[in-house]
Amino acid sequence: MAITELAKGVYWVGAIDWSIRNFHGYSTSQGSTYNAYLVVDEKITLIDCVKEPFFEEQVQRIREIIDPAKIDYLIVNHVEMDHSGALPQMMDLVKPEKLFCSPMGQKAIIDHFHRDDWPFAVVKSGEQLSLGKRAVQFLETRMLHWPDSMFTYLPDEKILFSSDAFGQHFASSERFDDEVNLPVVMEQCAKYYANILYPYSPLVQKLLQTVASLKLDIKTIAPDHGVIWRDKPNTIVEAYDTWSSGKCADKAVVIFNTMWHSTEKMAEAVMWGLADAGAQALLFDLDSSHRSDIMTEILRAKGVALGSSTINNNLLPDMAGFVSYMKGLKPFDKIGAAFGSFGWSGEAVGLLTAVMTDLRFALVDDAAIKHKYVPTRQTLDQCVALGKRLGEAIKKH
Ligand code: FEO
Question: 265: CA distance to ligand 1 center in Å?
Fold first, then answer.
């Protein structure tokens, strides 16, 4: 196995998951990596573990560098199972002198693995730990994206081990941002932000301000997934600033779920109206589009139009699932509209409007259009007008 060195004595010892396609409901079409890092100093330190099935791969990478039994310290930046699943096996193999984690991390580790006998050493923001020639500093990042999350910073090498932040689900044989097709990776970063970090955008803004105020000199950002940012770390930091502050393009996303193509016809008419207003627009049929790809576009769009037929007094099931997922991710500062066909009761449009109201979307005037059975030319014209009003509102926003 090739050894990957970030700086002298600092190594990547993670694992590559080429096959994963579903990450708790998020489609990972390009796989992922579980990054972990080894710092070889007087106290040899392993930062993070990997998902349980990848334990042997991680151990093999460590063996290329040192005997794992020589590891003194383990640092757990975040307890989610994709980074701690292999922790019990690693603890048995390494028997470290200390296991460092945040205060919330200790609770989470015990709740996951029921081992309060491990040699916990709790660290808080600002604390330093000497490894010998070097020291590391800790920065708690609660709820980014777990209660226990923290960063570990290595000042001598100017490396920020950023846990899940600044990562992306992207499997590749290359490890660094200057070795890959960056636009492809940035698309995965946007998807990762939209589907994992979006609800915590206000905390991301605060974190960026905290990191700036601490004047941390950061040359390399080493996240727990995907490529390591050694060439253009500012690219991902600036993207996080854009996404977390809600800056969006003059764009709308039209999402529909149709039973007998009537709602589909209405969705297409809304698209025509958006085009008439000169707004960029994207159309997604929930029958053929994945919710996590749609959320990536919502992250970057000012407008959202939702359309569903009514079934049994409710939304069609794919739309019900989608709005449940979207509500959890808390998109903010959007302009919304709703439409849909029905047979006899027609609750779907009201339910969609309620979802957008809960999310504090600004609804365009007369934002909801519903039609019994197959839309007439007149109804389709109303849908065009709705799209046009949405497009004009987006352009003014
Ligand atoms: Fe990559 Fe929150 O785990």
Answer: 40
